Amino acid sequence: MAGMSDCIFCKIVAGKIPAEKVYEDEYTFAFLDLNPVNPGHTLVLPKKHFLNIFDTPEETLSHVVITAKKVATALKKTGCDGVNIVSNNGGISGQIVFHAHIHVIPRLADDGREQWHGKPYAEGEMQQTGEKIRNAFI
Question: pTM of the predicted model, to two decimals?
Answer without folding.
Answer: 0.89
